[in-house]
Amino acid sequence: MAMEHGTPILDSQLVPVENIGESAFVFMGGIGYDEQRNREVGGAIIGLTGHRDVLTIPDAEAKGTRKGTAVYRGADGTERESPTKLPIKTIDGAEIRYTRLHKERAGKLIARIESAGSEPVDAVFQSVDVSTGLIAMHERPELFRKVVLIDPSSVIKLPSMRQYLKEEWQSGNLRDILNRRKDTSGFEKFEAPVSRREKFKRARLSNRNGNRIASYISSQAPMLHDIAVAQNAPDISIIASRFDHAYTPQRLLQALVSLDDVNSFFITNFRHGLGGKRLRLEQLVSVFNGSEDRSKSFIDRIRFAEGVTDEYRKRIFNIIDSRQEK
After folding, report:
1. CA within 20 to 30 Å of 243's CA: 21, 38, 112, 175, which one?
2. Where are the beta strands (DSSP E) in the chain?
3. What confidence tens digit (pLDDT) does each residue in 8-62 have?
4. Is pLDDT at 85 greater than 90 in this prediction?
5. Do the beta carbons of residue 147 and residue 237 sit within 8 Å?
6. Which domains, and CATH codes, for the chain?
7. CA-based diameter of the chain, in Å?
8. pTM
């Protein structure tokens, strides 16, 4: 029997996190974010949250033969390795856990947090760097207190392009994207734009070190579940973009092992990532400053940005209904 849906929780109903200024803050933005940009964006965030400083790690290097290696779990449960260029469909029953690149980056992040002497920390991981954050939290959950995952590419494994377009069309999301009018409201920038030359340079580096391919093959919902049920589990929230190019709220909700793996789930109208948008930054801080109890019904822990239509909310509620009826 389908649940009755109440009014989504409002920002004003959230309970502020206490003593936030005593914690250090980690920001890792994924592809296109080098160490300097991570620090700059992190600085803009803590200017609103009140954290005392920003922690990050050095840029990923292209050198090293194993960084582009994927660690997967076979049908027999044994972990093995394979070059990421090998089509995953050739590995029977494979579940991609992570790449060696992100395993290494997670180790550096853990060492950075420990050396700062500021544990536990609060953190925001975005896009493919969600993989780095999940591995770090999986190994050392006690180092983290409150974490927000923005457009977490690593939680799901993308379908083929044909299947993706079919799913998006059937859900109505593709029509929404194609029919969406250009909206200039709330697009005030809080950071300087990156030049095309610099974007190309970073994209090439991401391809060489295996960072970009990891965003397409990683499937870390089981790892997120392990973190959620850990004794020292951090408070984890997800911000998902309705108009994301691939990692839509629908697909993320269906990929979660359990809806209780996250404390809150926020759906916004922007596309992938913060993108330097002031309004998106404010939405992030709103989620960060809130505190949700996983013992509440999931329907009381999901929120929508202004402008998300009733029709779209109904699609989301239907997914939640189908999952909770199982």
Report:
1. 38
2. 25-28, 54-55, 69-73, 79-83, 95-99, 121-126, 144-150, 235-241, 264-268, 302-304
3. 433 434 444 555 657 889 999 988 888 988 999 999 998 888 888 999 998 876 5
4. no
5. yes
6. 11-61+106-324 (3.40.50)
7. 55
8. 0.84
